[in-house]
Design brief:
By secondary structure, the chain is mostly helical. It contains seven helices and no strands. It has one domain. It is elongated, with a radius of gyration of 33 Å.
């Protein structure tokens, strides 16, 4: 007599259905998980920020000091304005030429180093075209640096010039120039600190004290020399 036999399936014999996974999706997900959030590089602002802040400060302090020095011995508004304008033009040209020469020297050094690196890579592996273009784009631009310095200097120099242009009363004119320069010094110090992510109060106080000291020394020495009859 035949008996019914029950067929038992072992776990090892079970076939698990698997679906293919898209490798592109896995790579994309892995890359998104591994790449951290990119932080802004504030150090990259160093070159143009230095030129802009220093140029504006130089224009403000040097022009105001010249006007204060002339104002110490001459109360005529025309003499004061002409002195400030001459200081603006001369200072802007000086800043532009100095920045142009400095950045051009830096450009020559970096180009020479780039040529040496390219010759070294030529014996190993060819450098990709994209990498060469990226290297060239990162090089400093002397013309842009010179123009930025001249413009920043002119902006700073315009503050005391505009403050003194429409005030004929001598003492009032001196007070207005000092007040306008004080506000501009604080603003430039604060702006440079904010853009560079540095302490704003410390930067503003440092710039303000330096500007006051320059104007006081120029005014005092010119007054001393003028009173001696030289």
């Amino acid at each position: 007599m035949a008996s019914n036999q029950t067929t038992t399936t072992h776990p090892q014999e079970l076939k698990v259905l698997s679906f293919p996974v898209n490798n592109t999706d896995i790579e994309r997900q892995t890359s998104l998980e591994e790449i951290p959030e990119k932080e802004f590089d504030y150090a990259g602002r160093a070159q143009w920020l230095r030129a802009a802040v220093l140029g504006a400060n130089d224009g403000l302090v040097s022009t105001a000091s010249l006007m204060m020095g002339v104002g110490a011995v001459k109360q005529d508004i025309k003499a004061m304005i002409l002195t400030g304008f001459a200081g603006l033009v001369a200072g802007a040209c000086s800043m532009a030429i100095g920045e142009f020469v400095s950045v051009y020297s830096q450009l020559d050094i970096e180009l020479a180093q780039m040529k040496r690196d390219n010759r070294k890579r030529a014996g190993e592996n060819n450098q990709p075209k994209e990498e060469e273009d990226s290297d060239k784009e990162s090089l400093p631009n002397p013309v842009q640096a010179a123009a930025a310095s001249a413009l920043a200097f002119s902006v700073g120099a315009m503050v005391p010039l505009l403050a003194a242009s429409f005030i004929k009363e001598y003492k009032v004119r001196i007070a207005v120039v000092v007040a306008a320069v004080t506000l501009a010094l604080v603003a430039f110090g604060w702006l440079g600190a904010v853009l560079g992510k540095s302490p704003a109060v410390r930067s503003s106080v440092r710039v303000l004290l330096g500007g006051w000291l320059a104007m006081a020394i120029t005014f005092g020495l010119t007054k001393l020399i003028g009173s001696s009859g030289l």
